[in-house]
Amino acid sequence: MYFRRTMITLALFALPTFAKAQVTPPKSKQDSIARADSIARADSIALVKQLEKELAAQGADTNAAASAQPRATGGYMNIGFVTLADAGWSSASDIGAIERGDHDPKVNGFTMPNAEISLDGAVDPYFKGFSNIVLKVDSEGETGIELEEAYALTTSLPHSLQVKFGQFFTEFGRQNPQHPHAWAFVDQPLVLSRMFGPDGLRSQGVRVSWLLPTSFYTEALLAVANATGGTTSSFRSPDSPEIHGGVIDERPVTRLSDLLMAPRINTSFDLTETQTVVLGASAAFGPNNSGPSAKTRVYGLDVYWKWKPAAAQAGFPFLSLQSEAMVRHYDAAQRISQADPAITLTSEILKDRGAYAQVLWGIKPRIVAGLRGEFASGSGSAFVSELRRDQSRLSPNLTWYPTEFSKLRVQYNYDNRHELGSEHSIWFQFEFLLGAHAAHKF
Amino acid sequence: MRFLNFHAAAALILGALITATPQASAQLRVVATTPDLASVAREIGGDRVNVVALAKPTEDPHFVDAKPSFIVTLNRGDALIDGGAELELGWLPPLLENARNGRIMAGARGRIVASEGVRLLEIPTSFDRSKGDIHSLGNPHFMIDPVTVKIVARNIANHFAQIDPKSAATYNSNLARFNARLDAKMSDWQRQVAPFRGAKIVTYHRDFIYLAQRFGLSIVDELEPKPGIAPSPAHLAQVIGEMKANNAKVILVQPFQNRKTAETVARQTGATVLDTPQQPGAVANTSTYLDMMDNLVRALATGLGAKK
After folding, report:
1. Which residues pair with A122 in a beta bridge?
2. pTM for this model (two decimals)
């Protein structure tokens, strides 16, 4: 009800703007009207002859037109700036414990989880360059800045190969490589927070991709990257003691297996003229810092299906389903407890799993209703980690896109945590985008 | 042994998949972003080319899904024809990024920019999205002007001849034949529309301005208050007033535009909603560009004639 009232209020504000129509036609339109009016009085047969003459003249003049054509010129770089603002309320006393993503709402009241500058362009005929610089206002009101991505991509290697190098999101599943602007919900799925931490899995490295010579789309990818840093949550992140509870074992990189390896295969079929499905399988292998030879293995499956009628209006209506399931095997070596050095935690395999499924219904132009169901759970550990507590969530939401450059979203979350019970949250989200709007991948 | 079996099976599967790929032929593999460009390419290329259009004829060319199957099509293409005026800005760039095909990259011989040499209308002097979704290079709906299409056809013929020099004579003679047919058709279309020169029309989007200029029609207004902005009741009320004041009696819509909105306005003004798709194949018996224009001009002349 509150949302409906808000929408009506916003619509009322918006209407006068929409109503400012072009009362006066542009000069070109006025000219053509005047010209057409004068000609309309002439005899129609004479008119046809006159037009044919005009036509012949224009046909002959087409070469000259090329040099005379004025052209707008862009810079060598596309620049975009997108800002997300959240507002809302939750029954949870510690919102950060149920919303673990760095781009999720963090407090009762207002959150600015993502203000992102995106830069991209052709470096030269051989490479394209991309960069995303993110500013975030944390729950204390402090602004943080991070280089989220900065990478180059080859444009035309032989044999349908492509190489990406720099810092980039690992192409694991569907949502991990997406920026918050492209998310269909206010917050990131629980399973992504569980497996890849608050900022998703991204690191410095190189990724090779091969577009297979099959009749349907099939792409095989392999990323090799550093397994260290705050955005390699399941691997050698400095925050890993929150998972295994032990003192960090500092491991130098001495061999290839000390790096993060992430293979992926992705394929797609057009089921009909109006339905497409994309299927993917991903894995990530690398060391963790619970012991000198401890490793982590993450496996994932993902599916995306979309229906859009052949005569969709501005892309609507549509129906889509997206789902990802992941499993993590985290070898926790025998380790000294970080909380109490007198305690030694036994060697064990920490097993986590989780999944989400979301349905989006583009009801009519600019209105999308969504429903997401999800869970994440873990088993085994001598150390009780809050990060591994079983949690499930159900999230209906509704998004209104006044244009492709702004959106208003409202989302309700019903969270349930093992032994801690349920929480209710309502979040509003507003987004605006300036400058270049990178086209969305399917 | 198990290891060997696994690899043998994998090799067999991969081999089967690769075999399933269509075999290369002597024809140029041409990809066009929209069916109108594809149709002109077929006219020029004849049996020397195999042309595929990415967007469906009934689909809004601004809002095409960047489906992965398009990546495969673009990866294998010898040539890509795009409008060159940002019509495909919302979906073509990520496809090209992943197509990894140097033959169709910007500046390559196989990259055919249809609008090269076309005098685009409504090139903005300032970039301001409060004016709606304005294309920075000008209005991209130029294919609806048959005279402009002669420039597009020449661009396509030039590039085909560069990519496939041994067939250059064929492409040039096909171009001459297409131009001759277009000229003949143009005279016919002008005759059909000539009685209605100066007629006031309304369109849903600013996608008929090139047609209006060529055939001497006068666009009173659009149902969209600004390009890409959904019609609001306040704006529609204004359009109704303008239509009554100007005696505008037809509203042109395309298959992907909201016909119900147009019908609402038509009921208030006594106007007729004309289905005037701009893409070949959007309705029956319009598989070529010339057929599509035939259909469009006929619908226009019939609609205007009925309301005269």
Report:
1. A128
2. 0.86
